[in-house]
Prior knowledge:
Elements: H1 3-23, H2 32-44, H3 48-57, H4 60-65, H5 67-80, H6 84-92, H7 101-122, E1 126-127, H8 128-135, H9 139-148, E2 152-154, E3 159-161, H10 175-190
Antiparallel strand pairs: 1-3, 2-3
Helix pairs in contact: 1-2, 2-3, 2-5, 2-7, 3-5, 5-6, 6-7, 8-9
Amino acid sequence: MPTAVMMEENFDKLLEQCEAQELEAPGGIATPQVYAQLLSLYLLHNDMNNGRYLWKRIPQAIKSANPELGAIWAVGQRIWQRDFPGIYTAIAAFQWTENILPVMEALQESTRQRAYSLVAQAYTSITAEDFAAFVGYSVEEAVKGVVSQGWQADPATRMVMPKKPDPPPVSLVPNEQQLARLTDYVAFLEN
Length: 191
């Protein structure tokens, strides 16, 4: 099994465990470590609504006593604002603890993959500098990355030309199945 899949499954299990620990916490207040892991995992899964509500229900005393929680929320705010360069800056600006570091590294990589996908869908060409800011790399690293993905990079104009993603396959319904659905629909309307 590829390591990315194994890590994703581990993060899913960890998310379930953290949610259970928060629910079963004495007095309804979990430890700062549980809150930090839960918030970072919500961000990793791009579940901003649960992340926001978790931030609101964390007691103010825990927020102010744990700077890592504030740093995680700063990353969440950048995600909410769709500030891709700010996301990478906020992740790099803090020295994460060993239980949060793997989640933040995975968050950075998933954000980078999302940026690649968004650029491929939205742009026919983009300056190398703007693209590098979107993916959180230096211009040279970004250009190497696009070439490895089959995109084109023009060093003279310093432009990157994304390769358009393949459209998703259209699922065709067999004629007999389509006819049966239509018959059921017409019969429903007549009754």
